[in-house]
Amino acid sequence: MLLEERRTQGEKDREVARLKSDQVKDEKRRYDERHWTDKTLEEMVDRDWRIFKEDYNITTRGGNIPHPLRSWAEAGLEKGVIDVIEAAGYKEPTPIQRQAIPIGLQNRDVI
Fold first, then answer.
1. Are 38 and 80 within one domain?
2. Are the C-beta atoms of 60 and 99 separated by less than 8 Å?
3. How far apart are CA 13 and CA 70, in angstroms?
4. For residues 75 and 69, is the Cβ–Cβ distance under 8 A?
5. Is residue 3 pLDDT above 70, yes or no?
6. Do both 47 and 77 map to the same domain?
7. I need a labelling partner for 71 at 20 to 30 A (CA). Which of 13, 37, 48, 63 fits?
8. Alpha carbons 24 and 39: distance in angstroms, whole number
9. Average pLDDT of every residue of the chain
C-alpha cells in the first residue's frame, strides 16, 4: 500500500501498458491446435497455411500470393465447371492445381 502511494502516475501507466502487452502476447501464444483439415476456411491462420503448403510440398515466391485451394468447393468456380472437373475423376486438386488456380484467377503469371 505504501509503495503504491509513492508511485507516480507515469509509473502506474507504464505498468498498465506492460500488463496489456503481456495479455496480448499470451493470447497470441494460445493457438488453435486443430489440424487444418478440421478448420473452416475462415478459421485458417498463417500457421495453418504454412503447414498446408508443407503437406503438399507447395513452394511459392513473390509477393501477395493467394492461399492455395483446399478443395474444389473452395475454388470459387461455377458449379458447372466443378461438376465437369469431378466427372473427369478429379476428386481433389493436385498440388500444382491447388496453388496455380488461385493465382490464375487473379490473371497473374505462373511459372
1. yes
2. yes
3. 46
4. yes
5. no
6. yes
7. 63
8. 23
9. 88
Q: Mean pLDDT across the stretch 57-81?
A: 92
Which pLDDT tens digit goes with each residue over 36-58? 989 999 889 999 999 999 999 99
* Same domain flag for 60 and 110: yes
Identity at 3, one-letter amino acid code: L
C-alpha cell at 46: 498463417
SS (H, E, C) the chain: CHHHHHCCHHHHHHHHHHHHHHHHHHHHHCCCCCCHHHCCHHHCCHHHHHHHHHHCCCCCCCCCCCCCCCCHHHHCCCHHHHHHHHHCCCCCCCHHHHHHHHHHHCCCCCC
The total of structural domains in the chain comes to 2
Cell of 57: 510440398
Residue 65, pLDDT > 90, answer: yes
% the chain with pLDDT above 90: 50
Rounded-to-integer distance, Cα 95 and Cα 99, Å: 7
**Are residues 52 and 70 in contact, defined by beta-carbon separation less than 8 angstroms?**
yes
pLDDT of residue 29: 62
pTM: 0.66
